[in-house]
Amino acid sequence: MTVEEIFAVLEERYGATREKQDKWGVTAVVSASYLHNAVQFLKEESGIKFDMLVDIVGIDYLTYPNHEGPRFAVAYAFKSMKNPGARIRLKVLVSEENLNVPTITDFYANANWYEREVFDQFGIVFKGHPDLRRLLNHVEFVGHPLRKDYPAQKRQWLSTNDYLLPQLEQRLEELGYKVVQRSKEVETNDNEFLEGSIKE
Amino acid sequence: MGNEAEKPNIITSSLDFLVNWGRSNSLWPFPYGTACCAIEFMSTEVGRYDLSRIGSEYVRFTPRQSDVLLVAGTITYKQAPILKRIYEQMAEPRWVIAMGACASSGGFYDCYCTVPGIDHIIPVDVYIGGCPPRPEAFFDAMFDLQKKVKDESFMKQRAESVKEQLEMIKVKTAEAKCEAKTAIHDKVVDIKDFMKEKEQNFVKKAQFWKE
Fold it and tell me: Please, what are the domains in chain A?
């Protein structure tokens, strides 16, 4: 099964359209409702098994010249390890009103952090993600910095360092440990913790 | 007594000289290295340039034992609270060197996540230009810092700190007196009320027995 045939199947079964602007001709635009099935097809059913997720990228078309259609897009880059050189890219258009996209963490484990990053920087919500938190920015950070309408030089002062102890405790508890006692410094008051994130 | 201690005389000035000589020749750095400037600091520290020639013998990785906070590299907003906390943990006297363009001014990172110069968070004594600066530039900064340390007057600072402490003690004693007064006043009022109630009870009882 060649890449061309896979495109034909994608167009036929999942209503994908091929993007003409793509220089290499490997991009297919899929609607969000068909994304999960299309990824399953690419990974498991197609002859060339795309078993590697290279990247997930968020795109904001707000200031893009001559662009029509929804504001955001999420692009998935897949690669085949079995058939080297075979690559395919799926693209999901996301409108500003409905920012939901289904997650693909059940197929690719590394999609977990990629999706967290896209959520962090663009505010796109991945439905069904096991742990959708900010990845790069601080928990107190307000807004999504890679959106084109975020003022690039707007600075936000943060009151505390990033608080990762709950996740550590959770992971230790999964390994069979138990929290017996916390020191006073570790215990945070939620209200205090989130107060005063921005000093104007 | 206060005025005499503030004026420099032969004892205080020679003590100043001695203390400053000791301080300026044993400036132990705390390397807060986050980027390529830290690599340059490593080459300053070891064999070829050898920072221990001027007395910065040990690089201390705890703020409690170091004199100079050496911020080498980009400081992000996420890291700013940590840097501030480390600075607060250092014992006085303490000095800060901002090494390189990023620590001094944010460098070319003009964006949402980089602090535009660490002097927004903590006071800085010496800035070093360069991206990253050469070890010679770092030595120059250390000499500048030594000059600065030698200019300081230990006795004057001590007199000032003693003055501050005295004032604080005065304020605190005044507060404590006020609190004690109000507490005593409240107690007196309580006792008076209590006595009044008792008297009324007695009067009532007396009336009852009369009847």
Answer: 3-135 (3.30.460.80)
